[in-house]
Amino acid sequence: MKKLKVLIVDDSSVMRKIVERSLRQAGLDLGEVLEAGNGAEALVEVQKGSLDLILSDINMPAVDGLEFLKNLAGVEAAKGVPVVMITTEGSEARVVEALSAGAKGYIRKPFTPEQVKERIAPLLGGLQ
Amino acid sequence: MSTTFQSSGQTPVRPEPVWKSILECSAIEVFNLMANVHLTPAPAAAGEPHGDRTAMVGMAGALCGMTTIRCSGEIAAKLATQMLGADATSNPSTVSDALGELCNMVAGNFKSKISNLADHCMLSVPTVISGEDYTLEPASPVENFIVDFEYDAATIWICLTVHG
Predict the structure, then answer these.
(1) Backbone φ, ψ for residue B48 (5° rounding)
(2) Tens-digit pLDDT profile for residues A69-101
(3) Residues A29 and A4: beta-carbon distance below 8 Å
(4) Is the predicted pLDDT of residue B159 greater than 60, yes or no?
(5) What ipTM score was computed for the predicted complex, to two decimals?
(6) Which whole-number Å values give the CA distances from B8 to A36, B144, B161, in the listed order?
């Protein structure tokens, strides 16, 4: 099995650590874990290529998660990389907007490792 | 300190007495799932909120107001440690970040449980105040829902302030 290279995007460093821990608790075999504090920083990381999974908060200062998603559309290195949104808001409208913009799923905070696994495992194909 | 939130033209959602128990439930869920902290409602009213750490998340739209969590710095550090592990308190900003995120999730969890609020109320990013010598003075009449919890022989106050 391949170790996953994952990008976690959240303006809170605490949440980035919690998301990483939850991925490990969910049983995912993580390799390199990259972090970004907003959508602009995330785009730089994406352009470096070779990511297997992106998890992004929606509500962030500067470039938020929805704008980040829209910006990903033109990035060659993002093609085929599943993006899962993590949201506090519980707003169905924003979730629909994210899914329409290319997100493959969403996780609502607060979450359990089981919920993380349930949402992410089907997106990884044969990687894990 | 004065706070004002502008309505975004949504039909206002009126507060109901049951919101206090919904706020309590929302907080218990968030602290349990994200910090493995089991909050216990205080057996008796714990008095006015105090403590030198206050996390705030603004709410605007169908409901205008603010969710706050207030506790001592010591308790805030313990919560951060619960969320992240033993090294959490080595960086003071991590403690504030953790309390702010808890407040953000409590506000989000609360509004997701109220009909017509999830899609029509936006949350601000969290702000954390360090220090005790301040007064929040809302610019319009407010209704407060305050729940207090016992944790580690101390009190954590969670307050939803709704502007009229």
Answers:
(1) -65, 140
(2) 999 998 999 999 999 999 887 678 888 999 999
(3) yes
(4) yes
(5) 0.88
(6) 30, 21, 18
Q: Can you state the percent helix, strand and coil of chain A, rounding each to 5? A: 40, 20, 40
Q: How many angstroms away from the CA of A36 is the closest CA of chain B?
A: 15
Do the chains contact at B122 and A89, CB–CB below 8 Å?
A: yes
Both tokens of residue A101? 């913009």
Tokens of A42: 């995330």
Strands B53-61 and B65-71: antiparallel
* Chain segment A11-57, per-residue pLDDT in tens: 999 999 999 999 999 999 999 999 999 999 999 999 998 999 999 99
Q: Which residues does chain B have within 8 Å of residue A37's beta carbon, measured at their own beta carbons?
A: none
* Cα–Cα distance measured from residue B26 to residue B19, given in angstroms and rounded to the nearest whole number: 10
- The β-bridge relationship of strands A53-57 and A83-87 is parallel
Q: What is the DSSP letter of A111?
A: -
d(CA B79, CA B98): 8
Cβ atoms of B57 and B103 within 8 Å: the answer is yes
How open is the CA angle B62-A92-A95, to the nearest 5 degrees? 125
Cα separation, B139 vs B157, whole angstroms: 22
The shortest CB-CB distance from B94 to any of A13, A87, A110 is to: A13
A15 to chain B: which residues are within 8 Å by CB?
Answer: 101
The length of chain B is 164
The CA angle A125-A126-A127, to the nearest 5 degrees, is 95
Query: Which among B162, B89, B154, B99 is positioned nearest to B129, based on CA atoms?
Result: B99
Kindly state the tokens that stand for B1: 């300190």
Q: Tell me the per-residue pLDDT of B49-79, one tens digit each, with 9 for 90 and over.
A: 999 999 999 999 999 999 999 999 999 999 9
Residues listed for chain A:
128
- Cβ contact (<8 Å) for B125 and A61? yes
Say how far apart CA B148 and CA A33 lie, in whole Å.
Answer: 38
Q: Give the integer Cα–Cα distance in Å for B81 and B157.
A: 19
